[in-house]
TrEMBL record:
One of its GO terms (cellular component) is cytoplasm. SMART domains: Elp3 (SM00729). It comes from Nitrospira lenta. GO terms for biological process: porphyrin-containing compound biosynthetic process. Keywords: 4Fe-4S, Chaperone, Cytoplasm, Heme, Iron, Iron-sulfur, Metal-binding, Oxidoreductase, S-adenosyl-L-methionine. This is Heme chaperone HemW. InterPro entries: Aldolase_TIM, Coproporphyrinogen-III_oxidase, Elp3/MiaA/NifB-like_rSAM, HemW-like, rSAM, rSAM_sf. Probably acts as a heme chaperone, transferring heme to an unknown acceptor. Binds one molecule of heme per monomer, possibly covalently. Binds 1 [4Fe-4S] cluster. The cluster is coordinated with 3 cysteines and an exchangeable S-adenosyl-L-methionine. The lineage of its organism: Bacteria, Pseudomonadati, Nitrospirota, Nitrospiria, Nitrospirales.
Length: 376
């Protein structure tokens, strides 16, 4: 029998206290009624998958509560949910268990409760350490709440702390971005994610830019900021291991690595995506429809596709290219057309195809999506 691939469990909480101006994700505003509806449907979804034995005794390498903002749900309920998951599924001994949190939504007591329930990694959405950056993007909260949340998380026992940042924000410049990086480093996280701001259609930020109320992102400046992040974070002992992710040694996010290393993951919750045994499927992105399906004991899957071997290889190549170490050359198709494309991408300085591995160059990383689309 072939060895079992690693698998992770993702719980998608599509609830936030309010919508940030740049955010185009499917989500709903968290109210006690919506939280209750979500949790009761999620419980049914967990039970259905458990009954169908979808994970077939495989031990979970990672559990990840993402969103949205999972911590809009009271910590006692998040803790109960994790306890239930830990009871019904086999876990790897060193299972990585992450909860995403907005700093304003967690008290010291909440964080202690989450750590006691088994969460051992926290990902806090800092976004910036300069208060003026929050205004145009409609990010609620203060810098001191971020600082307090990190201190509280550490006091609660979290030793693995990720902080998310965004760059290319309206009004941000290279000096203020560098200052944000240094302020963030002073909080001593183990992992940092740096995401370039992208303007999504139909968001308030897109409308504000169109009206001339807010400046559009400057691509050249974003590139300088990306380079500054790589330099400043490397000096502080962080390795960039994926386009947007930096970690101290031993702290790369195991759950997210599943996405980039062709691992399996089962996603629960509205709009959650899954990839299990060569099959990709995604849940309905609507809480009412999701709840309705589960009330009649149907899985809330909106689309499902079984991938051919070639499609699996293609996806492994596309996602794996996001890693700085790239992918084995054997993932590329061995035909004349593919070889021509690889040669062309190499000549344009977008990839390096050497030592049996394909990696993106710094320029290739900026155009990762178009490089991937040219490959297939
Ligand atoms: S907290 Fe995150 S998911 Fe929620 S609205 Fe803001 S960006 Fe979107």
């Amino acid at each position: 029998m072939p060895p079992q691939r690693d698998i992770g469990l993702y719980i998608h909480v599509p609830l936030c206290r309010q919508r940030c101006h740049f955010c185009a994700f499917y989500l709903e505003i968290a109210t006690p009624a919506r939280i209750a509806a979500f949790l009761s449907a999620l419980e049914r979804e967990l039970t259905l998958y458990h009954r169908q034995d979808v994970l077939a005794g495989r031990a979970l390498q990672s559990i990840y509560f993402g969103g949205g903002t999972p911590t809009t749900i009271p910590s006692s309920q998040l803790a109960s949910l994790l306890t239930r998951i830990r009871k019904i599924y086999a876990l790897a001994l060193d299972v990585e268990t992450t909860v995403e949190a907005h700093p304003s939504t967690v008290t010291r007591q909440d964080l202690s409760r989450l750590a006691e329930a088994g969460f051992n990694r926290i990902s806090l959405g800092a976004e910036s350490m300069a208060p003026q950056d929050f205004i145009p993007i409609g990010r609620p909260g203060t810098i001191s709440e971020t600082e307090q949340a990190v201190e509280n998380a550490r006091a609660a026992g979290f030793s693995n702390i990720n902080l998310d940042l965004m760059y290319g924000l309206p009004g941000q410049n290279l000096a203020s971005w560098t200052a944000t990086l240094h302020s963030l480093l002073a909080l001593d996280p183990t992992h940092i994610s740096c995401y370039a701001l992208t303007i999504e259609d139909h968001t308030k930020l897109a409308q504000d830019i169109a009206k001339g109320l807010v400046p559009a992102p400057d691509e050249g400046l974003q590139i300088e900021m990306e380079e500054a992040a790589e330099t400043v974070l490397a000096q502080a002992g962080f390795t960039r291991y994926e386009i947007s992710n930096y970690a101290k040694s031993g702290y790369a996010c195991r759950h997210n690595l599943l996405y980039w290393t062709d691992g399996d993951y089962l996603g629960l919750g509205p709009s959650a995506q899954s990839y299990v045994a060569g099959s990709r499927f995604g849940n309905i992105a609507d809480l009412d429809a999701y709840t309705g399906q589960l009330q009649t004991d149907h899985l809330p899957v909106a689309e499902r596709r079984i991938l051919t071997h070639e499609e699996q290889q293609r996806d492994a190549l596309i996602f794996g290219l996001r890693l700085l170490k790239g992918v084995p050359h054997t993932l590329a198709r061995d035909d004349a057309g593919q070889r021509d494309i690889l040669t062309h991408l190499t000549e344009r300085g977008l990839i390096v195809n050497e030592h049996d591995r394909i990696t993106l160059t710094p320029m290739g990383r900026r155009f990762a999506d178009s490089v991937a689309s040219e490959l297939f």
